TrEMBL record:
Pfam (any one): Pyr_redox_dim
One Gene Ontology term of the molecular function aspect: oxidoreductase activity
Boundaries of every Pyridine nucleotide-disulphide oxidoreductase dimerisation domain copy: 331-428
Keywords: FAD, Flavoprotein, Oxidoreductase, Redox-active center
InterPro entries assigned to the protein according to its UniProt record, in alphabetical order: FAD-bd_OxRdtase, FAD/NAD-bd_sf, FAD/NAD-binding_dom, FAD/NAD-linked_Rdtase_dimer_sf, Pyr_nucl-diS_OxRdtase_dimer
The protein's name: NADH oxidase
NCBIfam families, alphabetized: PRK13512.1
Cofactors demanded by this protein: FAD
Amino acid sequence: MTQKILIVGGVGGGATVAAQIRRKNKDATIIIFDKDEYIAFSNCGMPYYLGNTVKDREQILYPKEEFAVKYGVQVRTKAEVTAIHREQKAITYLTESKQYTETYDQLILSPGATAVMPPIPGMDQTRTFSLHTIADMDEIAAYIEEQHPKSAAIVGGGFIGLEMLENLHAKELNCTLIDRSDQVMNPLDQDMAEMVHEYINEKQVHLLLNNGLKEFSNEGKTLHVASGKTVAADMTIMAVGIQPNVQLAQEAGLSIGKTGAIIVNEYMQTDDPAIYALGDAVETTDWITGEPRNIALAWPAHRQAFIIASHLHGQPIPYQGTIGSSILRLFEMTIGATGANRIELEAKGIPYKEAKIETLSNANYFPSTAKLWIKILFDAHNGRIYGGQAVGYAGADKRLAILSTAIKGRMTVFDLPELELAYAPPYSSPKDPVNILGYKAASMLAN
C-alpha cells in the first residue's frame, strides 16, 4: 500500500524532508502544509537581500509550483494545521475559506520557530521589526524604500543582529547595537568576543552592552536602555531570539522537553511512532555534554531530514546529536564557534583547559595575510577537544571546519600537530595555525 505522508511546515526542515523522502520513495503520497505563502526559501539569505548583496528577491525563493513538480509533492500554502487527531491519524487544517481534515500514515512536524517580540512599552510596530520570514523581509525592505531611514537600532547581538548590523550599515544607516549581556555572540567565550567588540567600535557603530531595552518614547523613535541612556533611531530591529513553535504538538499530547522544544528519539520520532519532528522546534542531545539542546541551525535540520527519510524507508540511521557549528560574516571579519564553550563546560562540571593563539591566516610575506585568532577547549586529562572558536579576517572558516571535524572525530589536542594540512603561501604556513594550536595545547598537558 502506498504511504501517505503529511508534512507540517516547509523551509529547511519540511521542504528538505519532502525532497529526501521522494528520492528514496517514488510512490508515496507527500503533502506539505504551510500557513504562509512560501514553503522553500533561504532564511540565511534575507539579511543580504536587505543589504543589496543579493540583488534579486527571487534568488532566495524556491517557487512552490516548481518544487511541487520537481519532487512530485502536493503543496498547500496558506493552510494552517490547527489540530492533530492521533487516534484517527488525521489532521485538521484551515484555509482562507474553509476547514478540512486529512488522514495520514506518517506525520512529520516542521513548525519551526517564531521571532521573539517582547512587549516593550511605547513600541511603534510600524518602525519596529523582526526578521524571520519572507513577510518580515518584505516589510523591512518596503520601510527602507518608502521612509528612507537614516538611523537604526539593532536589539540583540546574535546571528540576526550582527548580520542586520552589517547590511543596514551597508545601506549607510547610522547603527547602534544594543545587548543586555556583556558580549555579542554567546557561542564565543568572552575573551574571543572582545575582538569582535573592538572591531564593531572601529566601524563607528555604537555598541551598548549590559544594556537591556526598557521602553520606547517619541512614537518609537527613542529607545531607553537600562543604564539610563537613550538611543535615537528611525527604525529598530528586534533580534532577541526565537521561540520553538510547539503548540500544535503540545495540544496533541506530545512531550515537550526542558528546552521548550519537542522531544524526539534518535530517529526523530516523537512519543507517537507515527509522528516525526525536526528542525528549529525539536530537542536533541548535545554531542559534547549529553544535555538536551534546541539548535536552530540549517545543518541539523538537513541532517534530521535525511534521518527521517531513511527511517521511513526501513534504514534506521540514528541522529548522533549536534555540536552547534556556527559561523557568520561581520563586515570583513569572520566569527565562528563549534562545540562547547566555557559556560557550557563549567555548567556541566567538566574539567577543561584552553589554548588560544593570535596568528596570521597565511604566510606573513604574502599580500593577502590577515590577523586570525583561534581557540580550543579540551579535556584537562586526556586532551579530547570539546570546543573551538575562530575570529579573523581570512581563513577563519577553514580552521573552524577543521576543528569541528576534529570534535566529531573525537580527536585530541595530540592529533592536531599530526594533521597534514595543505600549504601554499596564499593559503597557510608550513605549520598551519591549527598545528601550532595543537602543539601549544599538547604542551599544557605534558607538564
